[in-house]
Design brief:
The complex is a heterodimer. By secondary structure, chain A is mostly beta strands. Chain A is built from no helices and eleven strands. Helices cover 0% and strands 56% of the residues of chain A. In chain A, the strands form two sheets. In chain A, strands 2, 4, 5, 9, 10 and 11 form a six-stranded mixed beta sheet that branches. In chain A, strands 1-3-8-7-6 form a five-stranded antiparallel beta sheet, with no helix packed on it. The radius of gyration of chain A is 13 Å and the shape is globular. By secondary structure, chain B is mainly β. Chain B contains no helices and eleven strands. In chain B, strands 2, 4, 5, 6, 9, 10 and 11 form a seven-stranded mixed beta sheet that branches. A four-stranded antiparallel beta sheet of chain B has the order 1-3-8-7, with no helix packed on it. At the A-B interface, strand 4, strand 5, strand 9 and strand 10 of A face strand 5 and strand 10 of B.
């Protein structure tokens, strides 16, 4: 069993829709939780970085962490074609452990 | 503020050769981590350097090695290349050690290695 499970999709939504992404994990030692966005042929770009359980908002992006359920989510409101990318969840103890990444396409 | 810079961006090698990749972290960042990204395995941790010392290591063979210089720049080396080493090698920098409150990682664009 992988430490971090993420549905690779792909996920296709119309412009303006809410995109919902999630990951589950098994390692209770994970303390920090991140979401990265990766465009084709580029390195991952940090979107959200959270420590505690609860919600964190940044513009159109909302990250949720539920440590008791070992479950994290990312929501993208009013999605745009420029949001089309692969989204990777990552969790950190002494290193980052990544999910497989979900490829999202936002159709204009 | 300049981001993480990796060189070269693309390279092609043949089996048995060795390769050295370079990473310049964000100014002020003291930690450099290296990751390998492949379609089959995703992103996997190679090692982390902080203050010129390897602090953590992933599950890769000894053919993969690295070092960090006093200016925080880092290099990684892969010796005796195998076909399976073809991948995107990503460097990430952070202020402090990963796993601490200052461990937020910022990635470079990667070095894409093809082994023939």
């Amino acid at each position: 069993q992988k430490e971090v499970e993420q549905d690779p999709g792909p996920l296709s939504v119309p412009e303006g829709a809410i995109v919902s992404l999630n990951c589950t994990y098994s390692n209770s030692a994970f303390q920090y939780f991140m979401w990265y966005r990766q465009y084709s042929r580029k390195g991952p770009e940090l979107l959200m970085y959270t420590y505690s359980s609860g919600n964190k908002e940044d513009g159109r992006f909302t990250a949720q962490v539920d440590k008791s359920s070992k479950y994290i989510s990312l929501f993208i409101r009013d999605s745009q074609p420029s949001d089309s990318a692969t989204y990777l969840c990552a969790m950190q103890d002494y290193k980052l452990s990544f999910g497989a990444g979900t490829t999202v396409t936002v159709r204009a | 503020k300049a981001g993480v810079t990796q060189t070269p961006r693309y390279l092609i090698k043949t089996r048995g050769q060795q390769v050295t990749l370079s990473c310049s972290p964000i100014s002020g960042h003291r930690s450099v981590s290296w990751y390998q990204q492949t379609p089959g395995q995703g992103l996997q941790f190679l090692f982390e350097y902080f203050s010129e010392t390897q602090r953590n290591k992933g599950n890769f063979p000894g053919r993969f090695s690295g070092r960090q210089f006093s200016n925080s720049r880092s290099e990684m080396n892969v010796s005796t290349l195998e076909l399976g080493d073809s991948a995107l090698y990503l460097c990430a920098s952070s202020l402090g050690l990963a796993g601490t409150g200052t461990g937020e990682l910022f990635f470079g664009e990667g070095s894409r290695l093809t082994v023939l």
